[in-house]
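#struct-queue
[09:14] JT: dropping the first one here, sequence first, then the structure tokens:
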Amino acid sequence: METLQLLADGFAGALTLENLMWVVVGCLLGTAVGVMPGLGSSMAVALLLPVTFALEPTAAFIMFSGVYFGGLFGDSTMGILMNTPGQASAIASTFEGHKMALNGRAAQALATAAIGAFIGGFIASIVVVFMAPLLADFSTRFGPAEFFALAVFAFAATSSVVTDNAVKGLASLFIGLGIAVVGVDGVSGAPRFTLDSPFLFDGISLVTVTVAILALGEVIYVACLERHVQGGNLIKPTGRPWLSRKDLREAAPAWARGTAIGLPFGVVPAGGSEIPTFLAYGLEKKLDGRRKKPMFGKGAIRGLAAPEAAGNSTTGMAMGALLALGLPISATAAIMLAAFRQYGLQPGPLLFERSPDLVWALLASFFIAMVILLILNLPFAMLWAKLLLIPRPYLYAGITMFCALGIYASSGSVFDLLMLLGIGLVGFLMRAVDFPLAPLIIGMVLGPLAETSLRDAAMSANGDFSVLVQGPISLTLYGLLALVLVFAVLNRVLARVRRTREVEAEEPVNV
């Protein structure tokens, strides 16, 4: 009952005219950015980070959550209509969703995606409301050794498990850790990697890094290496975006299974919603193979419903993990964690005690955002698709100007603008050689936590580093990490064996 009372207080705070306006703004921005291929919620949050410090924390985070959820809604729109998913999390939805569109069922495909995302996000929000306080209470058992183990788990999972190339993932992680240690050491007072420049004594701003890597780097990459074809591939939905009873009976079990698959991944630092969406799609494909008339490959509605529900349920649970544990599972969540710190807030049990108004208003805003996004996406999907008509040069020129104005407004330093350009070039090079960006962001965000926890644990044990592997929570986290790594290695070995056999089977036999 106490939780319901707190949630009711949260709705009272979220439904004020000002906060409701920011929910709508966040949903609009998130959907608009998600529709544009190559952009995403992480870029939108990074761009908004410098200019939201004038807002109250509650309003800012309500808007960020709207952007986060809205990005997923918009991603699937382009995947269905153009076979061009906005982000990797929408790839699984394109397989059957685009085939539905080609079969003249684009309106029904968009409705399936919107309802699936709504169901996944709404159920995840309910789970978060009741689970987040329990996770926060559990995190009170965490000491320096446990937080260090949690950071190591996040580092290893996001850099070696999710990425196709573990070496590139680890390299990206170490770049982020290297950026994080620049500046004056808080314990010894000694400057580290500053090149004797007073501009670097305070370190490199996380806001500058996120905007440069995610936004400016993407702009440079598109300008130099990509050529986008405008128009010609857009499929116009015909008919009403409603599902028949037969469609609902077909999609409902897939929505439920997708939601169930996505929920646990919201508290596992496995890179976001990419893995659960593919798992949900794979499960539906296996189940479809047992039917008398398999539909996969022809526009199966289950192949679209399950990934959409899985992606949004993962995102909803990720917000709970961020609030209760301070654990980011994706680049967007890592940027939001950075935003909490910019406001002087630390997610975890103390956040629920010190800022309950903010926490419960934010949790209540999840439900409001789901309803608003359903209203925005169910009947107006084609309106969002018209954003593709914006010429690319104008779009990316505007993003570049917004990057520079945001950084200069937040710091007032020309040096930060030069740093923005330099790190933006690093982001461009990482994209050009296919280095993942999420490990860099998570390494920079969690790097200070790992360093501080390591020092505190060692000093509390008089320099005995064995304290890091003595507690039950630490051992459990390291054990889970070992299992995850073994499972990932086995999957890759089996995939390589399958590819080798397929190549051998295709080769002609010499007589």
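[09:21] JT: and here's the second one, same format:
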Amino acid sequence: MTPTLAGARPRPGAVLPPLPSPAEARGPRRGSAERAAVTAACLAMVFQPILQPTGPGHTSPVDLFTLATLLLTGVWAATSGRRLGAPYLLPMGLLVVGGGIAGLIGPLPGVSLLQLAQDLVLIAWTAALYNLARLPGVLRRLATAFALASIGWAALLVTASFAHISAIEGVSETEGNRLLFTFGDPNYAAAYWVVSLFVVHAVQRPRSRALRWTGYALLLWAFALSESNGGLLELAVGLVFLGAVAVWRRHGLVAAVAMVLATGALVGGTLQVVPLSTVQNWAAQSGQPLLVNSLGRSDNSTSQRSILVQESLQLYDSGGPLGSGPRTTKQLLYDRQYPYAKEAHDDYLAALTERGPLGVVGIVTLVLAAAVRCGRVLRAPPQRGQTAELPRPAGLVAALLAMGVAGAYYQVLHFRFVWILLALVAALAAASRNDASGPDAGGRDRT
């Protein structure tokens, strides 16, 4: 007879997964390559914000832990004989192949090949995190390390803002009083703080409710210091999603859809009564730096992004249907003396203009693959098997949804923590599938 979890009543005829062996239940062994790989991955979670100073090829100090995770995971796999899975391999393969073709025939092959090398490292790192996160207890450790470290970094930034320690604030002449911290970009910083809020919610750490809410407050404060309008939209989307999930679990899908529609109608009605332009003018004339540099400049930001979209499409029309090559938009706009020479600021547009039709298929496939896994995570029975490692797994889905929205006005696939989210969601989805139908053979995952 197949053993079952204590207190659980299996359905008649259901095939239940076997209980983990005592060795698996203990988690990584002390002194082993497995434990070393997990430690390196946790340190990579902790030092995610440490992107300055930059090195050759857009490398950062945190990449030391990224490479350590890759190397130690390889040693662990080689010495343990474990078969590794590779989530999102198909969509990322399409993006890399499309980018490789475009880069080789494009005007800046060196820039493109460097970006493709970075893409391959991120793919490998995602696979490493995925396989480590499927070990008992490791997913919780990774999420906890990310959550607690983000609160600590937020506390450091808030303290530095009071003490006016510019080296920590990350003040830049081009960004005014927006605090970049160690990210080098205020929108990158805002996305990190938003994702961190949802990771804290997912893992429910710190355990103390008072400390956890203090952590939320610090993260929101650090987010406000970035003065990012895009980050505000990401936060709103994630919070509405979590509200819809809560309503769905209590009252069903119809009530959840009604809640989302009611929220949309409320926002739309409010904007009819108080137009966005009125709010923008009020913020711009308020004299409060926080409002002036966030809502007060939102109209200008929208205008600049519209110009950038037009310029990128003009580049694509003049460069051919296969694209110009990954990460070439800014340099080409500058070389051809366009008025607004910036990166594409749009993952979906950049997939077309820089990687061609294969890039479009790749980005669409990546979004669909992530959406399928998010659906598995949300449908998984709560507090069962490995899926019980996160008390509120919908928090990770909310963070990934927020980044999917942000991809329409940033290139979030350059953000390292987006790949952390993809890996952890894939690990949760694989665990929920195993809970439902038994363990997979070798943990293989290709799409």
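[09:30] RK: nice, looked through the second one.
[09:31] RK: Residues 360 and 379 are 29 Å apart (CA to CA).
[09:31] JT: good to know. Residues 347-379 form the longest helix (33 residues).
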